[in-house]
Amino acid sequence: MTVSQQDERSAVNDSVSSRPKLAVFKFASCDGCQLSLLDCEDELLAVAGAVEIAYFLEATRRTLEGPYDVTLVEGSITTEEDRKRIREVRKQSKRLITIGACATSGGIQALRNFADVGDFIRAVYAEPRYIRTLATSTAISDHVPVDYELRGCPIDKHQLLEVLLAALQGRTPAVRSHSVCIECKARGTTCLMVSKGSACLGPVTHAGCNALCPSYDRPCFGCFGPAESCNATSLVEHLRACGASDLELTRLYATFNVAAPAFVPAHRLVARTSSASHPPSVPEGEQS
Ligand code: SF4
Ligand code: SF4
Ligand code: SF4
Q1: Once rounded to an integer, what is the mean pLDDT over residues 207-221?
Q2: Is residue 114 a contact partner of residue 282, using CB atoms and an 8 Å limit?
Q3: In ligand 2, which atom is closest to the CA atom of 203?
Q4: 156 C-alpha vs ligand 3 centroid, how far in Å?
Q5: Whether 206 and 247 share a structural domain
Q6: 101 touches ligand 1 (CB under 6 Å)
Q7: Residue to substitute in 178, 189, 193 for testing ligand 2 pocket (most ligand atoms within 8 angstroms of CB)
Q8: Closest among 131, 75, 79 to 108, alpha carbons compared
Q9: Which of 166-180, 228-242, 273-287 has the lowest mean pLDDT?
Q10: H helices present in 51-135, as ranges
Q11: Residue-range definition of the domain harbouring residue 143
């Protein structure tokens, strides 16, 4: 390589390293939220031009050491190794943003929080003795300080881009925290709860999907987690009055955000007031 070629390469490297470093880490999860970033087809090149992708194993094997300017974390904490690793990730990250129901509330895997994880392990694995796991699945914010939580299962890619842009610009993301019902009204969808008595979690669910399910004549099942200041227990009684069965109610609150603190009291209320018991039961006093 000639001296001028070396200078040229060095100049390129300098310009690359001057961009903010982005890292994406995975914990217990299905990868769906990370894929939302790769799914930003029209915007991906602009993102790749604005940041240096320093750690993102879903996209590239090339990795750079921290510190990182912006870190996205997908997944929940389910092992002792996770607990240690998330502390290291936090130390290396100027801004840490959690993405998706797994990272923000423990995900569907948090069903174990309300049962005996040993029962699940014995039912699923042929050799349970090789499985090492915690008894609970918990949100990242239960372990380290988090700068922003983006909800959804999976997250909405437009909200992700806004959160990423806001982090790079040092401002608060313009992500609305109202319920799915507001989005439903804004797009002119007929309310399924009013017109059909459907058991819809829209009134207590965080916006972000543009009320996707009701627009296809399907009630919301809460995949974006709790809306800000929602009253999930109050909705239980209303849904019962609409004709929702105990089993339907149990299942509604036992999905991706089962351990979200705003949903747990509703889940517990359903279990306490059901005429029959349906798994998973929610012990009194159990916290996510
Ligand atoms: S929140 Fe949903 S889509 Fe995202 S990683 Fe967890 S299970 Fe997958
Ligand atoms: S259909 Fe569901 S989300 Fe839409 S307005 Fe009615 S209760 Fe709210
Ligand atoms: S309507 Fe509810 S269940 Fe459907 S995508 Fe939106 S938040 Fe998720």
Answers
A1: 96
A2: yes
A3: 8
A4: 11
A5: yes
A6: yes
A7: 193
A8: 75
A9: 273-287
A10: 80-91, 101-105, 117-124
A11: 3-169
Q: Could you tell me the pTM of the whole model?
A: 0.88
Question: Could you tell me the distance, in angstroms and rounded to a whole number, from the CA of residue 242 to the centre of ligand 2?
Answer: 13
Q: In 3-state terms, what secondary structure has residue 75?
A: coil
Pocket residue to mutate for ligand 1, from 24, 25, 30, 255, most atoms within 8 A of Cβ: 30
The answer to whether residue 175 is domain-embedded is no
The number of domains in the chain is 2
pLDDT at residue 226 above 60?
Answer: yes
Query: How far away, in angstroms, is 54 Cα from ligand 1 center?
Result: 22
In a domain, 283, yes or no: no
Q: Distance (Å, rounded) from C-alpha 92 to C-alpha 95? A: 9
Structure confidence by residue, pLDDT tens digits, 67-99? 999 999 999 999 999 999 999 999 999 999 999
Residue 176 CA to residue 159 CA, distance in Å, equals 10
Which of 29, 78, 151 is the pocket-test mutation for ligand 1 (most atoms within 8 Å of CB)?
29
H or E element, residue 273: helix 264-273
pLDDT score for 276: 57
- pLDDT tens, position by position, 238-266: 999 889 998 999 899 999 999 999 999 99
Question: Are 269 and 156 contained in the same domain?
Answer: no
**Is the pLDDT assigned to residue 28 strictly greater than 90?**
yes
Instruction: Tell me which of 147, 169, 191 is where a domain ends.
Output: 169
Statement to judge: residues 150 and 204 lie in one domain = no
* Strand, helix or coil for residue 49: helix
The whole-number pLDDT of residue 100 equals 97
Q: What is the pLDDT at residue 1?
A: 47
| Distance between Cα 152 and ligand 3 center (Å) | 8
- Look at residue 285 and tell me if it is in a domain: no
Q: Is the CB of 30 under 6 A from ligand 1?
A: yes
Are the beta carbons of 178 and 205 closer than 8 angstroms?
A: no
